[in-house]
Amino acid sequence: MPGKRTDVISWDEFFMRVAVAASLRSKDPNTQVGACIADTNHRILSVGYNGTPTGLNDDDFPWETDADPLLDKHNYVIHAEANAILNYRGSLKDLDGASVYVTLFPCHECAKTLVQAGIGEVVYLGDKYKGTMDNLISRSILDRCGIGYRQITLSD
Questions:
Q1: CA distance 37 to 29
Q2: Is 81 considered catalytic here?
Q3: Which of 12, 37, 50, 79 has an alpha carbon 20 to 30 Å from 56's alpha carbon atom?
Q4: Residues 6-62 pLDDT 10s
């Protein structure tokens, strides 16, 4: 009898691939972000992607960056990490110590939200805003709150 398969993907890769799949739901023409929250027992608790709030028709939505705040997408879109937390229907206690797998390093607003929700670790794929003020603030928040973060890559 042959032995079991040994070339399986890691938990990190599994959860990040779920986050990547979630990002494919984003309607944003420039940046598609997905997030997957997994507990310490390797169970998926929730998934989210960046998009408009429920009830705001994304077909009529201004998907551009604009000097006019009423027309700037950034003032309407909910980020993937926040959506994953808001989509969770269990007890928020379940998020304590959980890991969030996100396709883009969190902004400072999401970092605050993740800390407040009790997330224990941030695992991210991309960091296209590395070194920007927002990114530095986000890292400072996570560092000061003792939340670990690490970047991973996916195999082909």
A1: 24
A2: yes
A3: 37
A4: 889 999 999 999 999 999 999 999 999 999 999 999 999 999 999 999 888 888 878
Residue 134, pLDDT > 90, answer yes
Predicted confidence at residue 104, as pLDDT, reads 98
Running DSSP on this structure, what letter comes out for residue 119?
-
DSSP string, 62-116: --S--SSGGG-GGGTPBPHHHHHHHH--S-GGGGTT-EEEEEEPPPHHHHHHHHH
125-153: b (≥16 Cβ within 10 Å) or e: beeebeeeeebeebbebbeeeebebeeee
Nearest to residue 73, comparing CAs of 62, 85, 88, 59? 62
CA proximity to 32, closest of 99, 79, 89: 79
Q: Is 151 helix (H, G, I), strand (E, B) or coil?
A: strand
**pTM listed for this prediction:** 0.93
Q: What is d(CA 87, CA 92) in angstroms, rounded to the nearest whole number?
A: 11
